[in-house]
Specification:
Order of helices and strands: HHHEHEEEEHEHHHE
Structural class: alpha+beta
Distance between the termini: 34 Å
Helix content: 25-40%
Shape: elongated
Radius of gyration: 19 Å
Largest sheet: 7 strands, mixed
Strand content: 15-25%
Length: 216
């Protein structure tokens, strides 16, 4: 089926406006997190983010549903019909989901979502702020700064008890976490992974950039 020439031109314009180097796009996103990523350091931006800013890079492939769920600006990887790859920063959606606002090297662009999704395969990348002491995984029965943070953040959301002295990730705390996950539309497994911690940050008022939903 032949694509409408106007639509084809719009898709080409979006691709042409993006960053060829993904790290350049990450640096623009980093500025929204009040962090200036070094332009040249021998390490990629995601490695620098953990070392210098307490930020973690997240990558997923959930399309607009994931973008809305995470509720923060995200990098989108666009692929043209010829295999050309470019990166743009999604900063806002209108309420009905008809248009997206993108940051690009040429400035902001308002793009119909149908045009965007013609070149976008649903991959989303963004930053999130690490809890204190987080080493990448929490196991049942674990203690420490991250577990204390988890209990205190859940208390802000569900009105339950804050962290107790020598707080453990016990069954009671896991049950509260499962309830939170269920409300947020996540798998209610009691495992505090990246998506759970990101949504807990947002729900409990951690200061992070937000995706703007216009008119919704």
């Amino acid at each position: 089926m032949t694509m409408n020439p106007v639509r084809r031109a719009l898709i080409a314009a979006v691709l042409a406006a993006g960053w060829a180097d993904e790290d350049d796009a990450w640096r623009v996103l980093a500025a929204r997190w009040n962090w200036t990523a070094p332009a040249a350091s021998g390490a990629d931006v995601c490695t620098q983010a953990v070392r210098s800013a307490g930020l973690q890079c997240f990558r997923g492939a959930g399309g607009l549903a994931m973008v809305r769920q995470l509720g923060r600006p995200g990098l989108l990887r666009l692929v043209g019909a010829d295999g050309q790859v470019r990166h743009v920063l999604l900063t806002a959606l209108d309420g009905p989901g008809r248009h997206a606002l993108l940051d690009t090297p040429a400035g902001p662009r308002r793009v119909p979502v149908g045009v965007l999704t013609a070149a976008w395969r649903g991959e989303v990348a963004t930053f999130w702020r690490l809890p204190p002491g987080f080493s990448g995984r929490l196991a049942p029965g674990q203690r420490g700064a991250t577990v204390t943070w988890l209990a205190d953040r859940l208390a802000l959301v569900d009105g339950g008890a804050p962290a107790q002295p020598d707080q453990r990730l016990d069954r009671a705390l896991q049950a509260r976490l499962e309830a939170f996950q269920q409300v947020q539309g996540l798998k209610a497994d009691g495992v505090p992974g990246a998506a759970t911690l990101m949504l807990l940050n947002r729900a409990s008022g951690v200061d992070e950039p937000r995706l703007v939903i216009q008119g919704g």
